[in-house]
Every structure is written in C-alpha cells, then in structure tokens.
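Re: Re: token formats

Sure, here are both.
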Amino acid sequence: MLELELPLHSPRFLKSVLGDIRLKDKWGQRFLIDRNLIEKMINLAEVKEGEPVLEVGAGVGTLTIPLAERGAKVYAVEKDPRLCGILKELLKDFPQVRVMQGDFLKINLWNILRKEKNWKVVSNPPYSITSSLITRLLDYPSRLRLILLTLQKEVAMKLASPPGHKNYSLLTVKVNLYGKAKVLHWVSRNVFFPPPKVDSAIVRITIYRERKRRDEKRILRIAEMIFQKRRKMIHNVFPQLTEEDWKQLNISPYERGENLSLEDLEKIANILKNKYGMED
C-alpha cells in the first residue's frame, strides 16, 4: 500500500512510488516537483471547493493531490496504465476525484464535459500533445471557464502572439476566437522530474463568457487556407476577390495572410460566403 510518507514534491517520493517503473520518454512523462509552483498554478486558476477540474496527464498525482486537497472535483486523465494504479491508490481518500486511464486525444471528451459546466482545465500535460490538446478543448468552449497549462516556451509564445509576429499561427487564431491567452509565469526546466530539454511557461486561456456572434467554423477555414500558404500575399490565396473587393474590405491585397487580424479574417469569410457562395 502506498502512503505519502515522503514529501510529495521530491525526486525521492517519485522514485519511491515509481519503483521499477521506467518512464517513457516518447510519452513526455515528467512531473512537477516544486510545491510552490503548483500552489501558484492552483491560485492562478482560482480553484475553489466543489469546482470541476480536468487534469490531463495526471502522472502520479503531484498536481492532482493538491487540487483534491482544495476540494475540487477532479477528473484526472492518464494514458499510462502503470501510473493509473499508483494514482488511484494515492487518491483513495479523495472520493471526489475520478481517475480515467486513456489517451486524451482519443477519449470521448464530450462524455466528460457534459456532466458539468464551467470546467477549469489545470494540467501539466505532455509537451508532445499540447497544441492538439488545446485545439480539442476549444471544440467545446461553452463548457469551459479557463485553461491553465504548463507549456513549452515556444507554444506559450505562439498562443499569445499578435498578428504579424513570427509565432502567430492557426492555433493563435482559434484561441483568439474563444478566449484570451496570457503568459503568466516563465518556468525553469529544473522544477520537473525528469527535467525537459526546454524551458516552459504557465499560460492561462480565459474563455469568453459571451462571444460575438460570428461564423467561427468559416473563419477557421479561412485561417487554415492562409497558414497553408504562409508568406504568400493574400490576393494569391483568394484569387477570386477583385481589387474592388479588397477596397471594400479595407485590406491590402499585397498583405501577407499571417498579418491579418481576427476581424480581417471575418471580413474575408463573410464576403466569400455572401458574394461568392463559399460553402461551409
């Protein structure tokens, strides 16, 4: 039987509970071992007793247990069945926590999110899935309150980049449609076990409670077309638009697509639908 006899956030504790289990580098398994940083994450997410919290990549509970101690109703997803056994044993005294073994990118996410509203996602996920994880979560913006993650520095900068910045991307556009991303804290690689090869950041995406009525799917399709032809001038991406169309839109046809704001993308989406019959 596993007991919390050692400090939870220490290499000694992790080695003790892992025993002969060897972590899989291909799954990006690394655990937070800085209690102060974990408390900071929970405070930045403003986690309160009784709130639903989704954690992706729960590992052996170095974040899950402090969330449970706050009284949150935690739904912890962990891909590695070996770690799930450890996690369930360590969390046996927290009946409000549910552990699910599975690949987050393949599970039925709606079956989880439909059970509650105003979910907070608080996680230290594998870095190999962070972009896909955020994209998948944002398929259900009406169920979410906020997303707070530790991310590799490169992805963190991408999420918070303005139009025209080298890190501005399709993912940035999707985040901007549904919420506002902010880098809250830069994180040293030394607070993880084992340490990653890159520095990290805590990023919070605050989901808009009320969103402007707009054709979100069409806007994302326009953005996808633009970023597939990154560095091309916009008139080459949408050759059907005339010089008069560009004047009406107040967008230079010689602008590069990655310099366009969300509002610009919406204007292009609307004219392509209304004047040229662009299908969904």
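Second one below.
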Amino acid sequence: MAIDKINGTAFSSLANINGVAKASIAKLNGQDALTDAPTAFFNVDAQESSSYSGSGTTWVDIAGGNNLTLTNGPVYTNNQSTSGVPSYFSFDGLNDYAQDGTSLTGWDSTDSWTFDAWFNTTASLLTSSNIYTIYSKSADNNSAGIVMGFRGGSTYKGLLFRFATTAGLIDILPTNDLRSTINDGNWHQLIFSKSAGSGATPKLYLDGSSESFSFSGPGTPYTLDKNYNNVQTLYISNFRGSTVFEFSGKIGAVRWYDSYFDSTQALSNYNAEKAEYGIT
C-alpha cells in the first residue's frame, strides 16, 4: 500500500515534508510514498482546510501561494469532515468569481503542463451562446492567453478550451458530444494536458477517459503555452474580467501541473480523487 495523502493533503500537492524535498522521500512510516505522483504548481482545493478554512474571502493556493480572492459571495459548502461528501464553492452564474491579480506568471512555454478541474453543473448547453467559464487568464482573442470552461451548441459540444495568440484564437473541438455528460448534475473531472516541445498531441480527458478532438483556428497545437507568460488577471468563474459567461454550478478544485498526463496518469489521478466526490 502506498501513501497518497499527508494529514489529508494530497501527496502530489506537497513540495516538501518538514523541509525535506518530496523527491527525496521513498517511505513514510514504513510505507511507500508516491514520489512519482505529479506535483501541482497551482492548487486551490475546497476539500482541504489548508486551502479554505470555511470562512473569509481568501481561497489559498496550497501549491504556490497564488491565493485567490472570492468576490460577490460564492457560497461555500463545508463537508471536509465527512468522508465521500465533497466540499465546494457554488457560483451563481451571475457575478460570483475568484481572482488572483497578476501573480501567476513566469511559466516556460516549452514546459509540459496539465490543467485539472472538478466541477458539477446543470447549466444549459443547448446553444453556442451558453458559455460558462471555469478559468481565464486572457485579455482578448488576439493576445496571448487561455480560457477554459464549457460551451453549448453542436460545434463546441460542451467544451470551451480557447488558446488566444497574436495570430488569433485556437479552439479545442471534441469529437463526441459531451453536453449531456457535462451538465448531468454529477461531479466530473476535466483534464487537458500538453507535452513539452513538439512531442505528442495534447490530450483531453473526462473522468479519466481520453476524448478525441480537433483544433479550429491558426497556430501549432504542439506548442500551446499555458498562459504565454502573460500578466493578465487569473479568474475562476469569470470571463476576462467581464460580466458575462460566469460559471453556474459547483467547483471543487482547480489545478495546474508542470507535467504531462498520459492516459495511465490521467486515470490514476481520477481514481485517486473520485472518492472525495462520492464516486465509487
């Protein structure tokens, strides 16, 4: 049996333990430690009391200290002491959001990276005008940045993954129509992962399963940057600081990793976390 949590915090979210680098730790109390688990460099997790204590307007990034300010009253549901029942923030789809200013910068565009979010929504995805933002760090469609969330209609099929470049926008278009799964009122995990350099095509996973997709727009998909090192504000449940396309539903966690998730890692990550969301 291997240890995947320390005092309730995922081992993958820790940089060190009592000052000892995680990579140097092979065993804890005689049990193997998952030293090969990916390490998040940004991690806001409503399950962890170290990320949110249950009160106040600060949602702590327990990986890198890029804390978020909760704005206009997202409602917190605290089930941290109850196994198998998730804690989460509810966003009203109107004006609730969280932001970090411009502190999350300095990422290397040649890195591997992975975006990971746990969500629950029943919002309509009938038409392409139904847009709900989980994460944005972008000024517009023609300067470097990223928007990730959900979009209705038969073209987007439930997802909005938009990479803006100086040449225009690149959208991720799933092959399968995911709308009825995404907005079924159950908890789901969404992962998008890019390999460093000109390696494998980026990967999309929903609940640990790979989903095929195509690209729409200019640019080379192999070199998609995490945020092009921009200095735009990072928003959760807000589209570029505007008053439109807010998220409607529940968010349990949002993370960025400095590593690429293949299908094995994506499924392992999902299986390691699903019990916290009541998934058996």
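Helices lie at 153-156, 179-182, 263-273. The longest helix spans residues 263-273.
- S.
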